[in-house]
Write a structure and sequence with these properties.
Layout (H helix, E strand, L loop, with lengths): L7 E4 L3 H12 L4 E5 L7 H5 L4 H10 L2 H8 L14 E5 H4 L8 E4 L5 H14 L5 E4 L6 H5 L4 H5 L1 E6 L8 E6 L5 H14 L3 E4 L8 H19 L3 H7 L11 H8 L1 H14 L4 H4 L4 H8 L16
The chain binds nicotinamide-adenine-dinucleotide.
Protein name: 3-hydroxyacyl-CoA dehydrogenase
Family: Belongs to the 3-hydroxyacyl-CoA dehydrogenase family.
Organism: Geobacillus icigianus
């Protein structure tokens, strides 16, 4: 039987992990937020004269994810006091503490090998009955669970939040053939009643439902812009404010999502489908060049819009 969720842990304190932890804190669930210890400096940090050691110490003590949650707009926390429900730590010192929680949500980089490694470690420390889920944007849930214990597989599923988690109501729940139906039913009611989400059950197909359609729409728009010779501002305006979507126009969405994550998500369909649909998911050269330059959007300070 699955545990009732009273305490949770989020693995990965990036754009989504921190946002999910904030949403859990907003509904009163104490949450442990863990990330890896950084192994390199960003260009900005180098320019500030930081050393790697300095960054690692700073990351443990101050935790940049919490700083971001307090500064970010729109605010991920309903009240700044909710931050007290988020406890931070790192994969090296605190992973064993996952044994204390009832739900472990993985939100690390969108790479199957990395996620599989993380779940192998989770399988060693979790207590039986702990629900484990992935926030993947579209990687196969079944592939991530390959090789894991029977109890893990029974309690494992996809819980796909949308960005920003406090504000976007959709939660896709993706079971595998091994997920216990009682766990699926529990997570559906937990998602609706406790997290306040609109829950949709999705099949374990590349990018599930919303991202299969959404990625397609964004890629078509970028290609149309290049072929038509339009500017980013023009396209953003006609796919945004002028049609009543003030905050979620094409390029602002891409900047908020993060170009690296978007490219992984688009490639996931490109690599896993055949036939007519495949070409529509090919990532345009423009986006690849931006990625090579580190223009990832809000998280790197530069994306389609120059000032974030
Ligand atoms: P992000 O790049 O902001 O954060 C990823 C985190 O993973 C970082 O904090 C990083 O330190 C950590 N990480 C990197 N390598 C690792 C490793 N080897 N082991 C453990 N942790 C590692 O990414 P994100 O946007 O928060 O995405 C996280 C997950 O959520 C991905 O699966 C992504 O597809 C999914 N997702 C993203 C969005 C979005 O809009 N960005 C929306 C829905 C779902």
């Amino acid at each position: 039987m699955a545990k009732r969720i009273r305490r949770a842990a989020v693995l990965g304190s990036g754009v989504m992990g921190a946002g999910i932890a904030a949403h859990l804190a907003n509904v009163g669930i104490p949450t442990l937020l863990l990330d890896i210890v950084p192994r390199e400096l960003t260009k900005e940090e180098e320019a500030k004269g930081w050393t790697l050691e300095h960054k690692q110490v700073r990351n443990r003590l101050v935790n940049q994810a919490l700083e971001r949650l307090l500064k970010q707009k729109p605010a991920p926390l309903m009240s700044k006091d909710n931050i007290a429900l988020i406890e931070t730590g790192n994969f090296e010192d605190d992973f064993h503490r996952l044994a204390e929680v009832d739900w472990i949500i993985e939100a690390v980089v969108e790479k199957l090998e990395v996620k599989k490694e993380v779940f192998a470690r989770v399988d060693e420390v979790r207590t039986p009955g702990t629900i484990v889920s992935s926030n993947t944007s579209g990687i196969s849930i079944a592939a991530m669970a390959e090789g894991r214990s029977e109890d893990f597989q029974k309690h494992f599923l996809g819980t796909h939040f949308f960005n920003p988690p406090r504000y976007l109501k959709l939660l896709e729940i993706i079971p595998t053939e091994h997920t216990d139906p009682a766990v699926v039913a529990y997570m559906k009611s937990f998602g609706e009643d406790v997290l306040g989400k609109g829950v949709v059950l999705a099949k374990d197909t590349p990018n599930f439902i919303a991202n299969r359609i959404g990625t397609y729409g964004l890629l078509v728009t970028v290609r149309e812009m290049m072929q038509g010779g339009y500017s980013v501002g023009e396209v953003d305006s006609v796919t945004g404010p002028l049609i009543g979507r003030p905050k979620s126009a094409t390029f602002r969405t891409l900047d908020v999502v993060g170009l690296d994550t978007f490219v992984h998500v688009a490639n996931n369909v490109y690599e896993n489908v055949e036939g007519e649909e495949k070409e529509a998911f090919r990532v345009p050269e423009l986006m690849k060049t931006m990625l090579d330059n580190g223009w990832l959007g809000s998280k790197s300070g530069q994306g389609f819009f120059l000032k974030q």
